[in-house]
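If I may wish for something, please sit down with the protein I am sending here and say whether tokens and residues agree:
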Amino acid sequence: MQARMNNPAALLPEAVKGINLLYKAAHSAGLAKSTLELVHLRASQINGCSACVDSGARSMRASGETDERLFAVAAWRETDYFTDAERAALELAEAATRLADRPDPVPDHIWEAAAKHFSESELAALVLWIATTNFFNRINATTRQPAGQN
């Protein structure tokens, strides 16, 4: 696939500053990096962002993630590879990514499941990271950023 243009964030240096602040904020709340990586990969799979799926999987592998868990992210409900907290985060990521799929995009039961496992600041980081991932996915899909180029 040929990119339509260079990544817009790279072309607008002021944007990079804001993106870096979002990244830092989401990663500073004490939430496990593996949880952030899981929701990033799952949202990117849903959105069909090949660049983020590729970079996310590579990052997870570099962080020591097992192949079993890495290969099962898309089918997380059907495996026993994920903790209850990770399952709640993955379900929240799916709901927040697929906002138009139901009248109540993030039903109370999904939010409450996540709230059982994460503190308020961790939930804030999780929501921020899911939104940031969707932001990246939309930029990359719109400009056709190819996998392996990040």
